[in-house]
Amino acid sequence: MVLHHKTIYNYDRLVALSPQIVRLRPAPHSRTPVTSYSLRIEPKDHFINWQQDPHGNFLARLVFPNPTWHFSLEVSLAADMTVINPFDFFLEPYAEKYPFRYESLEERDLEPFLEPSPLGPLLERFISSIDRREVRVIDFLVHLNQRLQREIRYTIRMEPGTQTPEETLRLASGSCRDTGWLLVQILRRLGLAARFVSGYLIQLKPDVKPLEGPAGANEDFTDLHAWAEVYLPGAGWIGLDPTSGLFAGEGHIPLAATPEPQSAAPVSGLVSECEVDFLHEMNVTRNQEDPRVTTRALRSRTANNNGTTYVKSPTKLMTSLPPVMCASRWVASRRLSPSTTWMAKNGIQPLLVRQSFGWPETLLSACAPASRLGAFFILARVSGIRASHCRVGHSVVIGGPTDCRCGTIRSG
After folding, report:
1. In whole angstroms, what separates CA 178 from the centre of its chain?
2. Of the candidates 248, 269, 186, 191, the residue with the CA atom closest to the CA atom of residue 27
3. CATH number, residue 123
4. Does one domain contain both 187 and 318?
5. Do residues 266 and 198 lie in contact, with contact meaning Cβ atoms separated by under 8 Å?
6. pTM here?
7. Are 130 and 253 in the same domain?
């Protein structure tokens, strides 16, 4: 994906600009691979100095020696939107259940992220309503994140700054930065280190609308966004997006992660007194796509020397399969090469093929853990597609390259 972001300030007179701090470069901890990045600045008569703040975020410090009529920033970046499993992490044994306490050395390092703001009556009432009985920490965070998504209505707010948690709870509405900051304060009051994150959000139009649940984006789009991150021992910083109620995935590209929202602003600096016209444009385009089963048409091919068969219509392939069939019988029916048939006969357990997630084109395979990887590749090879997403216990074939780490088939 190629993301383009341009911000223009047009002034009604010549103005003097103080040093401007720009936080529009993906942070080092971004899980989404960023393959290229550029920042174009006008006026061209300027000095730029790249820095890292105390939290490791990239900053561009801009100095403009001469007065100017305008100031513009143009960001272009390419990101590999390979599917990311947001739950693909380990936890230290003592942190697998909530409540837990950080180790003493870790707690000292996390002090800025554990310090809460003054407690108001509405926030106190909200926190007292949270069930603190022992529970898996992942379940606890999922429930809390989804509760905020249900109870706080999302609004677009053009006013500068961030609402206090009391304001957000009283209004029961707020922008992404307001809800993200509320979640940070709640987590800190619960003894969990949390920080505020600003970044880009990329959402792509799904190939096929689901039969149940939200339909997703109507078109590919991107925008500046804000969310929260919580520190879990063994896993590190994990992103939570209370605006959507989801954990941060490949579409969340962090730009700055800090203890306070003010130090994560995309652009900060002073300008002499003037009237200003503000222009802002963002778009995202797909520059390369791998064939995947959820696209409406795949290029038809005949079987090659390896016996791989590519199908033109994934829907026809799906509807032509019986609900349950043996992997070796399926392999034989698709006329695979002897070596692949041998794999099926010697290492593959019965393979279940059925519709899932409301997508008629989706194939879901389930088999014994010891033979899951082999069965998975049989399924992918027979279908003439590759897989890029999985969950523990089964693999979902939706297209793209794969590898296997720690027994889980995942995107590579």
Report:
1. 19
2. 248
3. 3.10.620.30
4. no
5. yes
6. 0.71
7. yes
